[in-house]
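Subject: mismatched residue count in predicted assembly?

I count 453 residues in my input, but I want to confirm that the predicted structure covers every chain. Input:
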Amino acid sequence: MRKTVTRRQFLGTTLAAGPSLRSATAQGSPSGKPILLSKPEKPALLSGKPIRTDPFPSWPISGEPEERSLANVLHSGKWNRNVGQYVNAFEKTYAEMMGAKYCLATANGTSALLTSLSALGIGPGDEVILPPYTFVATVNVVLLLHALPVFVDTDPETFQIDARQIEAAISERSAAIMPVHLGGSVADLDAILPVAVKHRLPVVEDACQSHLAEWSNRRVGTFGATGCYSFQASKNLNSGEGGAILTDNEELVERCFTFHNNSRRRKGAAQGLSYSMPGANLRLTEFQAALLMAQMTRLEEQSRVRERNAQYLTSMLREIPGVLPARMYEGCTRNAYHLYMLRYKKEYFSGLSRATFLKAMAAEGVPAQGGYSPLNKEPFIKETLHSRGYSAIYSKERITRWEECNRCPQNEQLCEEAVWFTQTMFLGTRRDMEQIAEAVRKIQAHAQDLTRL
Ligand SMILES: *Cc1c(COP(=O)(O)O)cnc(C)c1O
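Triage response: the counts match. Full output below for your records.
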């Protein structure tokens, strides 16, 4: 006999035979009339039956189109963009799909950001404004260029940069604003763009999590000087690793090309000096582009499924006190739901810690994560600002001032309350969504007991 079957059967019999809450409550009501069920069955973390045992949809998703295009590249022997046609084709298709004039494919999202900032001439002495609630790559690229990251606190309701606080963070050293469209939702571009225009600052959109997300019915990544995307394995569009820069600025895309091509301009470009700026090799391979061409044919439909499921989940979670799904700004007309983010208020769960809540969810068969920790407080950032290189550029007073201003209290609270579900969980059925909500309700009903763990 298989072990799993035995265990399930065992749980089944104990639940049926034992005084389950359902029958005990009904039988135990003084009037003899069944009263309303007050508590769902025991949480799995307290040896109850899990809400689900089936896994959520697996990722990545591939098939014949991927096999065909990868085999094409393989057999062509043209594995590099300088000789093949897939990277060119991808750039053209992605630019069209997103509504941008130009697209440059890069090795990954980090190099899309690094290339953008480099092409914009950002470097030592400059300040770059960015949110603390993001993946570490957003700040890494600033540090690699020996610029100063200036963190603007998070709007806890939306999980996005609090755009109302950006202007106060601008100084005469500011060189760029780098908003992140976090989780597939969109930062408040109506507030960010006018401030950028007023202070003549380029905006580099980190759209690494927001494929097909829209602001006022226009794709994100097309509002700033550049918009940067990632196709890393976890992202909604996936080639294992990969990235892209969108821009409408021809001169800028050529600078980006040169930077990502080890200082060498595009073939056929008017040649002056052969090397015009320092660069690196950050090119996408033909294999990745071939994979992306196939994956792109699935993106729209997958995105619709995620959106439909996420909206359904929100409608259910709204009814549960103490879980607050991330709000979207009015301008956000489409959310890519790379992450489904909510705030967990433990006061509504008998003080049950988020850590135990997450464990209890996992036990119910619903994996959830706690998300980012406060990036602006990461010791490596402070260490970097005190490094030999930074000390050669910035005065002690400047760094001290940075430390004094580096306060994001809203973000710190958010980092303690956040709960994430990842995008792959939204590629399934409405039933999956119902089970997520059911798991939350069950844990809430038994929160008191769970606090004793
Ligand atoms: C994934 C990600 C990046 C970096 O992309 P890679 O392709 O992993 O280099 C940058 N910013 C954000 C917000 C991301 O989620």
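The two ends are 32 Å apart (CA to CA). Marking this ticket as 'not a bug'.
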